[in-house]
Predict the 3D structure of the following.
Amino acid sequence: MMNIPRSVWLVRHGQTDWNLAGRYQSHTDRPLTDYGRRQARALASYFAGRKVDAVIHSGLSRAESVARAIVGARKLPCLANEDWREGSHGLWEGLTYAEVMQRYPQDAANRFADALNHAPAQGESLADMAERVMTAWRRLGYAHPRQRVIVVTHATPIQVVLCMLTGVPLRDHWRWRIDLGSVTAIDCYPGATILRAVNVVPR
């Protein structure tokens, strides 16, 4: 994949109450827990000494709170872009795995057999979400060439970018572990991509 030169940090937001409870969470706007706010402060410290040109977030408060903590007192653009949101869980939103299996057993069976093409009821397939995220990735290059950019997003968008840049099949996206409050660092050059770090969790 041809890249526009730039450095990008992909950051997963901090913990919310639904993360803690094991609930499916995509477009519902849940705030950070106390622990999630500590994660945001740790991320702010991690980036405090680094040159950054812009910070982008998915538009949801759990991502925006982390983005604004990272920006702090610096005069940096802090921009919302909904294309960096998690794939929609549709009717599964807010449910636990056990509740999904009880209420939507056939839908769950179809989804887990082929997440690439089968969406949760009224939700978004992995393929559709990947198209959205990779469009955002390409636009990021055009908007911020030769810059150092932080994108505060969600687990699956980060996994999608890693799959597309390394040739890992999208259906195996789950093989990339992306923890809450983690940093994945990518350097882009015209003919190559270098992963400098994957799933680093500042403390």
Observations:
- The domain at 6-90+125-200 is CATH 3.40.50.1240 (Rossmann fold).
- The radius of gyration is 17 Å.
- The chain is about 40% helix and 20% strand.
- Residues 126-143 form the longest helix (18 residues).
